[in-house]
Design a protein that fits this description.
Distance between the termini: 16 Å
Number of helices: 8
Radius of gyration: 17 Å
Structural class: alpha/beta
CATH class: Alpha Beta
Number of domains: 1
CATH architecture: Alpha-Beta Barrel
Order of helices and strands: EHEHEHEHEHEEEHEEEHEEH
Shape: globular
Helix content: 25-40%
Strand content: 15-25%
Oligomer: single chain
CATH superfamily: Aldolase class I
């Protein structure tokens, strides 16, 4: 990692970066439970860890979908767990106003895949001087992400990461092209692979996104073997009752076994 992230530990272990947490803040207790469990595992395995959680969900298929517990309440929950566990935190933003608000609470701002070309949003995020993680759009090529990186740098911020999360394959599936990892690393940025959202099955007739969580381990192993700088994943104690993206999340009790395998692959490289 060539980016300084506040409170990030184990940066000299040559391990991969882990960005992990629930899809959205469902309640304050859940945030503490999940973050504490991930921290225990990553301390044991000496993996650099950033806790992630959306403070609100602006991109939902149905009007009756859960969007959050309230912006400030959720942001405070993320900030509090970061302070309590002494770990860096990340949340995603959707507007220029979101960037200014969220920057007061978290260490890393994330640009959602659908918004990776929005110049005003990228510029506003960059000007907060926070680390910026840009997710590659499902419609975007690896080479085109150079321009998203350029927008952040042009605004005076060189602290930028890119996250691969698959490309649309037809209307209801996504695929990951592992060539995107080295192609985006050419921009001199860390490249993370989102191994849960990349297994989504969007645009279902039910209005609820599907997924194939049984393949999370497969995509994770392939990503580390292909040279990814980090892994992004969403996890929940019981994905079947999660309020958002449960169909593609990793069950929390399966996380340690997965990370142990990924650490062994990383060391073998």
């Amino acid at each position: 990692m060539n980016i300084q992230i506040p409170k990030l530990k184990y940066v000299n272990t040559k391990s991969f970066l882990l960005i992990a947490g629930p899809c959205v803040v469902e309640n304050e207790e859940m945030v503490v439970e999940i973050a504490s469990k991930i921290k225990d595992i990553t301390d044991k395995l000496q993996i650099p860890f950033i806790f992630k959680a959306s403070y609100k969900k602006a991109n939902r298929s149905r009007v009756d979908s859960f969007t959050g517990i309230g912006d400030i309440k959720a942001l405070e929950a993320i900030r509090n767990v970061g302070n309590m566990l002494d770990i860096p935190t990340l949340t995603d933003i959707h507007t220029e106003e979101d960037a200014i608000r969220a920057a007061l609470y978290v260490d890393v701002l994330q640009i959602p895949a659908f918004l990776c070309r929005q110049t005003d949003l990228l510029t506003a995020a960059a000007k907060t001087e926070k680390v910026i993680n840009i997710k590659k759009g499902q419609f975007a090529s690896a080479s085109s992400m150079k321009y998203a990186v350029d927008k952040v740098r042009y605004a005076g911020n060189d602290k930028v990461m890119l996250t691969e999360r698959g490309n649309s394959f037809g209307y209801t599936d996504l695929i990951i092209d592992m060539r995107n990892i080295p192609d985006m690393q050419k921009f001199n940025v860390p490249v993370i692979v989102d191994i849960t959202h990349s297994l989504q099955q969007p645009n279902q007739t039910s209005g609820i996104t599907g997924g194939r969580p049984e393949l999370i381990e497969t995509i994770g192993k392939a990503s580390i073997a292909a040279g990814a700088d980090g892994i992004f994943l969403e996890t929940h104690p019981n994905p079947s009752i999660a309020k958002s993206d449960g169909a593609n999340m990793l069950r929390l009790d399966l996380l340690e076994d997965l990370l142990e395998k990924l650490v062994r692959i990383r060391k073998a490289l």
